[in-house]
Write the structure tokens for this entry.
Amino acid sequence: MSKRATLTTRQKSIIRILTRMDGRPITVAVISEKLGVSTRTILREVPAIEKWMSDNDFNFERKPGVGMLVGEAPETLRFIEELLDADNLVPMYSRQERRKHILGELLFSDEPVKSLVFTSKYKISDGTLSEDLDVLDTWLRDHSVQIIRRPGLGIFVEGTELAIRQAISNAVLEFCDVERIPGLITQGTSDDEKMQSLSREPLLVFLTPQLLRFSIRILKETEARLNIYYTDSGQIALIVRIALSIYRIRSGHSLTELNMDMDGLRGLSELPTAKLIAFEIEKQFDLEVNAKEKIYLAMHLSATRILSRGSSFSDPLQALNIRQVVMAMTSVAEQLTGIPFKSDSTLINDLVSHISMTEKQLELNLVSRVTYTEDLKRTYPEIYAAAETACEVLREWVQPRVIHDAEIGLIAMHFAASAERYQNSKQKVSVAVVCPTGIGSSRMLAATLTGAFHNLEVRKVISAFSIDTQALRDNGIDLIISTTDLHIDFPYIVVEKVLKAQDKLLVSQEIDRISKEKLQRRIQQGGRHAMIMDVDDIRRTSEIGAEIVGKTRPVVHFQGKDYPLPARIPAEDLTCWTPENPELYSFTVTCEEDNILSYFAYRSLSVENDEHGVPRLFLNGKPYFHNGLLDQGYWPDGLYTPPSDAAMVFDIQTAKDMGFNMLRKHMKIEPLRWYYHCDRIGMLVWQDAPCGANVYNPLVIS
């Protein structure tokens, strides 16, 4: 609740005159005459009146040459006069505060609430309440909850217990000041007054000192006992959801339905931790925590990504998938902005880490708390737009395909940080300074340029009459900055002897242009060298790398054991891959600080004679009938290029669902992810020799 300045007697009198005009305009001169004061006095009061009207959602208009009016219905005008007669006008809610409080009261009420309760409590009209409910209903429907308005009965929300909990927790994280919680964690939980202050808001009624203290303690104990840690935002989210679960169970609202893949949820690695927390809840509060409540806790533990200290991913194959998605996202953003995001290893690693943490949050429709999205849009509009487009790649990968603005803002922040690193690390631009008026002015201009631009290097100060463009090129000069117009075949700009603001802007633009051109040339040169490498080049490069590494041998990490390369992994416990059971095994190869994540399948393919002496195709030592289709790899919205990862999966899965176990890829090579999805889904591939080009990448065809 915020405090508004009390209206003065004169301001009340002006408002009464306006309300009694029944929506018709009245001039300042007429009001001043009625009150016996000057027009200037009335005009001084108008801003305060206008603000009071806006805070209360009343339509106040000022029409030049016509006058002022309150554009409301007659019943609202009478309601305004009742407000003016109230003894205390100081406690007021802003529109956002009021809607937040109404939302909290509806979500935690077990009975319908009469509309009169809201109109009286918040001093609003029926029309304003209806508008508030419309806005809240739109937000709630995104969480599978809706507001029901029944005349004679009241207002209430309708939805499953799971949906209501998701709505409450997301509303708390999105609309409430929960950033006070970390302070309670670090400063201890002995101050009941500070803890009690949280539960005074209707949306935070469940965050009582008792539940807060318990939730904070259980997080710390879980971290210490299981040697795990939570992300900072994860700590807040888990405290909210643990406290909310206890509050709802105590109120008789246990989960009875999850409407999710129960077999998959029972396999969550976080379930043992959830059972431990449930045991503590039962012991502390004398409650029964059913199996679905434990799975619900495990879901949210998974969404906050509990990690073992010093580890990263529990599933290297999953990390490989996420890295491929990130590379596709950075490629999109790079094409839109021209900034080399794909070459920024820090960005790649940060996005892989971020998306691995938020994947479950996206699947569970959990929001992230971000307060700077609008600032990012204003400060980095092009980068934000590029990140928004790049998120279309992510949207194809997650289920359901919904990504909130807050999540886009977090991803845009990573791209913006990369852009700043790129700007700060650009190679210096080499310039020559030309100033015909004398060596002194030339030196002054050179010193000014050096001081103003950290990414600019003045290599030469030369005369306008002795410019040798070939010599400048040979010496690596990128640009001439001159105080006079030059007629030469060499990049140059003209500035004033004493740099003005527009001159600095011009120099900055040229530095950006030249830096991007130089970087693009380096990227293109690197690409050409990569294309002409043959298998022998790759082998020699690998041997050189082994010499550099020295005594450090690469190690394969597989199923909790380490195998030095070349690795021989015992096959006794491996399951053979078949289309009916496409078992894949993930592994990691580590050499010093480098890690490679990949997978393999255990299978054999051969042509052998069957029991009748007829040559057959064998899979894992047994005859296996290949029932397949000719797949020419055409795409209606991509021609030879798959339009998305989901499109590739759809085609393979559809063929599998129709009973086929093999695809013959006709005279083309698909993206490597297509072959991965065939391995994962269970689809044999007959690969034709490709046709249509003269040069192939040896890493693909060898």
